[in-house]
Amino acid sequence: MNSTRAAFAEDLGGGKIRCGLCPHECEIKPGKVGVCRTRRNEEGALEVLTRGRLRAVAVDPIEKKPLSHYRPASETFSVASVGCNLKCPFCQNHGLSQALRDESPAMAEDGRRWTAEEIVAAAAGRGCASISFTYSEPILSFELARDVAALARPEGIEIVFVTNGTVNPGPARELAGWLAAANVDLKCFSAEDYDRVLGGSLEAVTGAIEIFKKGGVWVEVTTLVVPGFNDGDEQLGAIAGFLAGVDPAIPWHVSRFHPDYKWIDRRPTPPATLERAREIGRAAGLRYVYTGNIPGDDGEKTRCPGCGDVVIDRVGYFVREVRTDGGRCPGCGEPIEGVGLR
């Protein structure tokens, strides 16, 4: 436990190693790093440079992830290292996720290492129901998260990922064995744009969503709706249709973009676009579609898919009231899917 050796490393001979964690499957020569810059070939052994080097630690409401149907009104112990295996030009957390590309690769080894034991003790000491690997890409913290999960389970603390879903099927299946919940970013529904603009794989993300769901992970999905990129009816309809085909009860969060990182010349998403996305999601059969980054909008509330009554009343990240009755609408008895709904 707390080793810096990377999982899913394949010896290719001649000192070269293939990393099998994500679809990049980097073939890394001695002394070199992979696309994510968090894994380096150290004399034939693949080392996780960022292991335990937390750059952000906070206690958050679980609604911030966002997770609207997983233990509402609970607190989560949020942790993050630097690094990402995508290069999204509109990233809202680029200070962490893109630091190794934009600032210095040496940041991977900055700061002291937190052990798995320290993370679990800190979460327990703050009375948190879960530990969230978030802000940057948690897939790159696979080894640490796995060790944290083993220690957290006896304490009654669960593990949450807020992830771009860019992971290979084998690691995704392992994750499904110990993840309690995940919010997965499904950024568009164009394989070409995933490759060209984001540096990733649509197939990997949709596959991860399916694997997580099949494996018993509570899954919610976020799409940052970016004008001129993924805000057309065809894109939004394709995302909604895919999710409804996996499970109509997957909550879909359509969030407002604000100009950031490399796309500062684009306008913020009009609220009307998000309302249209909600309508598209409902028409596709999704039971729960939420708006994000518009505090106070009605789209933050959980409404019963049967009668339309508010069953979880929230404003921003604050939950005013959970009105479910044994996981059902108190008005009409309709099941309200989720984890930890009273």
- How many helix segments? 9
Mind describing the biggest β-sheet?
A: 8 strands, mixed
Strand order of the largest sheet: 6-7-8-9-10-11-12-13
The topology string of helices and strands comes to EEEEEEEHHHEHEHEHHEHEHEEEE
By CATH's scheme, which homologous superfamily of the largest domain applies? Aldolase class I
Determine the fraction of residues in helical runs and give it as a percent range.
Answer: 10-25%
Strand-pairing-aware structural class: alpha/beta
Unreliable parts = none
Q: Into how many domains do the coordinates divide? A: 3
Strand content: 15-25%
Terminal residue distance = 36 Å
CATH class placement of the largest domain: Alpha Beta
Shape: globular
CATH third-level topology of the largest domain: TIM Barrel
Using DSSP, what is the number of strands? 16
Computed CA radius of gyration, to the nearest angstrom: 20 Å
Structure overview:
This protein has 342 residues and is α/β, with parallel strands linked by helices. It has three domains: 9-48, no CATH class; 56-296, Aldolase class I (TIM Barrel, Alpha-Beta Barrel), CATH 3.20.20; 301-342, no CATH class. 25% of the residues lie in helices and 22% in strands. It is built from nine helices and 16 strands. It has helices at residues 94-97, 99-102, 116-125, 142-152, 169-176, 191-198, 202-214, 233-246, 271-283, and strands at 9-13, 16-19, 27-28, 39-42, 45-48, 56-61, 75-80, 130-133, 158-163, 181-185, 218-225, 252-256, 289-292, 302-303, 310-315, 318-322. The strands form four sheets. It has an eight-stranded mixed β-sheet. The chain has a three-stranded antiparallel β-sheet with strand order 1-2-3, with no helix packed on it. Strands 14-15-16 form a three-stranded antiparallel β-sheet, with no helix packed on it. A hairpin with a 6-residue loop joins strand 14 and strand 15 (310-315). The longest helix is centred in the last third of the chain and has 14 residues, at 233-246. The radius of gyration is 20 Å and the shape is globular. The model has no long low-confidence stretch (mean pLDDT 97).
